[in-house]
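Weekly modeling sync, notes
Attendees: S.R. (lead), two postdocs, one rotation student

Agenda item 3: backlog of single-chain predictions. S.R. asked that every request posted to the team notebook include the full sequence so nobody has to chase files. The rotation student volunteered to paste the first one in as an example of the format we agreed on. Action items at the bottom.

Example entry:
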Amino acid sequence: MDPAPVLDEIEELARRRRVRVQYVSRGRIDAIARTDGPQGVVALAEPLRPVSLDALCEGPTGGGSAFLLVLDGITDPQNLGGLLRSAECAGATGVVLPRHRSAHVTPTVTKVAAGAVEYVPMALVPGIPTALRQLTERGVWTIGLAAEAPRSFFDLELAGEPVALVLGSEGSGMSELARKRCDVLAALPQHGVLGSLNVAAAGTVACFEIARLRG
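Predicted structure, as returned to the notebook:
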């Protein structure tokens, strides 16, 4: 890459933290990055370690109640990355993902999430319906976002109780059993011609509404 102030800043931050800096060919950078446009810098880090669902239910270590995002079969890495970024910005304390039939953290997800994967703890569970039952048993109120639900999401009343927002897959939405396990189903009111929002956009709106209600 040509010299640039941002590259100098990255190198200085790395050296200050005693992170070894190597200069390599552009071809090697592209091979390691596995994404389009790595912009000349790649950081090698320890793998992300999932946490337990019980740990997420306990809420953040600094105090306060849990605010979780439960993703029932999100398969598009762009959507997962966008949801992780929105969840972190809205103050979510954890994300729940199924082990199978779901996107997980990949280079693409990491890039779209813009750093959120480093701050939002994630739990991998065998199945979302079972996880929802466990959340209810632990006192976490589960809210399923469903376009056809008769109740408006903006009519929900939340205070400081533990809460989990449940989002379904891009095509079919939540599974039938996941719907039944939610404490309440609610929809985002729409006023246009199109029938639905992209799941990442809908999740963003819902996350920030929960953040607003929780104060």
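Discussion: group reviewed the output briefly. The longest helix spans residues 199-214.
Action items: rotation student to repeat for the remaining queue; S.R. to check formatting next week.
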